[in-house]
Structure formats: C-alpha cells, structure tokens
Amino acid sequence: MIRAYVALGSNLGNPVQTVEDAIDAMAALRGSLLKAISSLYRTAPVGLKRQPDFINAVVAIDTRLGPRDLLDELFALEARFGRVRDPGSVRNAPRTLDLDLLLHGDAVIDDPALTLPHPRMHERAFVLAPLAEIAPNVVIPGRGPVGNLLATCAGQRIHVVTRP
Q1: Which residue numbers are catalytic?
Q2: Is residue 95 over pLDDT 80?
Q3: Which of 35, 78, 115, 137 could form a disulfide with 83 if both were Cys (CB 3.0 to 4.6 A apart)?
Q4: How far, in Å, CA of 45 to CA of 75, rounded?
C-alpha cells in the first residue's frame, strides 16, 4: 500500500455537507483505506475572486491503486457529485466538488494527464494547512517540508470551520 494525499474543495450548494459526503465516499474507494481526515477549512477563492468561499480538507489514504488509476477514481467520484470537467471551462471557477491528488508516495510525474506532486500545492494555504494538520512531517518532493511551505503562505485567508 502507498500513502496518498487528496485535497477536497467545494463552494457550490452546501459545501460543508458536500465535502463531508465526499470524505465518506472516499472511504469506499476500491483498493484503498481512509487513514486520516483533516478539519474543514473556509478559504478565499484563488484566481477568479467573485465567487463564494471554499470549504477545503485533505485526507490521507493508503492505496493499492497506481497514481493514474487513483486519479480516475477521484474523477469518477467528482462526477457522482455533479462535477463536469470541461476542457474549455474557466480555470478556478466555482464547483460542486474538486478532488486533487496531491501526493502518491514519493512519485514524481510530469505528463499532460497527471503532475505529481500537485504543481501548485506548495503555494496554497488551503492545501498546506490541512495537510500539515494530518501529516506534519511530510516532505513534498522537490519543494520541502510542509511546515516550511505553509509559513510562506501566511497572508492567505484560511479559517477552521467550527461545527455546532
């Protein structure tokens, strides 16, 4: 089994419920075991600013799936939650569910279908904060320790979602 980390995000409909339901669904991914779940975080949108805040989280899974097969499973899960991936769509637009494969063991892949580690994860507090919460000692290949990278994102708005 390989440890992989997946980021979840939503800002349409009921994003808290969507992320929680998606985490539940990830527990049933074939060949995989859900190992850790971060808190939920409310974050400002990146890129396209005129949209609702996002709810984000990161999960750790142990998987027998290779990176591309896992990515296919994640895309299928997004589709179950109403996500339509259109190559012509606006980047960073609002979405029902976004699942990003951040890390798959220590794999480094750079091809048109998949880049690992995720190419922008080291710049985004909404990925680094929940990742650091569940894996404080993880090192992002080619970038460094998650804690050091999170410190460089200190100006980005991010808050833990408190639940009643």
Answers
A1: 83, 95, 98, 100
A2: no
A3: 78
A4: 21
CA distances from 32 to 38, 41, 52 (A): 18, 24, 32
Judge contact between 64 and 29, C-beta under 8 A. no
Q: How far apart are the first and last CA of the chain?
A: 36
Lowest mean pLDDT among 11-15, 145-149, 153-157: 153-157
Q: Looking at the predicted structure, is the pLDDT value of residue 88 above 60?
A: no
- Residue from 117, 146, 108, 106 nearest 130 by CA: 146
pTM here? 0.91
| Residue in the block written with tokens 């799936």 | 65
Q: Which domain holds residue 20?
A: 2-160
Task: Please report which helix (H) or strand (E) contains residue 67, including its range.
Answer: helix 67-80
Residue type (1 letter), 132 = A
CATH number at residue 90: 3.30.70.560
